[in-house]
Fold these 2 entries.
Entry 1:
Amino acid sequence: MTELRIDDFKSIIHQVKILIDLHREFLGELDSIMGDGDLGFTMTKAFAAAEEEAGKSEEKIPGKLLLRLGMVIAKASPSTMGTLIATGFMKGGKAIEQYEQIGPEELTVFFENFVKFIMERGKTVPGNKTIVDSLLPAAQALRLAVNEPLVTGITSARDAALKGLTASTMMKAQHGRAAYYQDNSIGKQDGGATVGTYIIEGFYRHIVKE
């Protein structure tokens, strides 16, 4: 696979939804340790709405579809994580809305903007035990592999996201309810960083297995 088109992104959203649905209870368990326990519920709502919108959309430009999905996610899941992911999709989609085919460079730009505006909206940086700690390494890996085939780039991104998730487990939470736990948050897996790995995994499953 050398590039992604509109139907590829619809399949990717489906793959992410499958992963979120499969791990709904696990996400809830992670969130119940240092949050309000609703992460699994809000993420399943978010990606159910995104998949429904993608399925009925007649949009031909991937970036415009991704922007639209961000708007749908924001409405379906107006939680903290829902808002951050919605922002990522909207800003990432906007950055590539002029392209009908998405290759390594365009996919990299999508994820770079996805993460950049999550950091801006969430007022966070790497190392704060958030979704950024899995998605930023993935975006950086894509940039390093931008001259390689999509399969190579997304495989590197997946590996980087998983390493980022592992590293974030030993970080101290700085944002949201989890920040109340301070040192007690060290050693506990972050729900947001976990969701970040599922998003990357959805792309990986489609690109590599197709």
Entry 2:
Amino acid sequence: MVDAARPCVSHPDLVGFKYPLPNLTLSLRRQRKTRIVSIGSSSTAGADNTIPYPCRLELALRKRFFGRMIDVLNRGIGGQEAPEELSRFESDVIGEAPALVIWQVGANAIYRKVDYNFDDVSAAITAGLGWLANLPTDVVLMDLVSEL
């Protein structure tokens, strides 16, 4: 017997945001096409036969905002951390002109402490957020280890 896929039911406390996403909201209201870029490591790219969240987010948004063209671009590369991800920002993030950037960052710096200097990771995050602050895009930092 083939395992049936279980529906993904999100708890409202997990999907609410403290701050609004005005650029995403405006894009969904006024634009024919809305683009979201997800950048990060394996949690973004997908690992261990798990469907990565960018695919699931795209499907959920297309269902909720039926008739709109919504693309969630998956720019995850397993094993990377903020310094490597920052080196891809111009082509993989800024060049896509997204209404929203979801940056999954910090996990590899925690799990692979010998490979990363926390000051370098912090500086790369600060630089990336500085670049994004000058654009008409919202930013969500996704920290997967805050509850560990």
